[in-house]
Design brief:
It contains one helix and three strands.
């Protein structure tokens, strides 16, 4: 399911919304103040190549959970 980032036009909070296929504007409500006013943000795509076993050894919190290098090892 795709994740989209939004910024509330009223309070400035940034939040994520999961959409199945098509954006449904009724689903986009600020998680902080409940406002339906928002701006959709551009998100950078993340590409991972190879498997975890092929990556350099890092013990950072994100690396151990498989979420990509957290930068703790300065290998990124």
């Amino acid at each position: 399911m795709p994740v989209f980032d939004y910024r509330c036009s009223d309070c400035g909070t940034t939040y994520d919304v999961y959409h199945k296929v098509k954006e449904i504007t009724e689903d986009v409500i600020c998680t902080h103040c409940g406002s339906p006013k928002h701006k959709k943000l551009m998100s950078a795509a993340t590409v991972t190549m190879g498997s975890k076993s092929e990556s350099p050894s890092c013990t950072g919190p994100s690396c151990e959970s498989g979420g990509g290098c957290c930068g703790a090892c300065e290998m990124n």
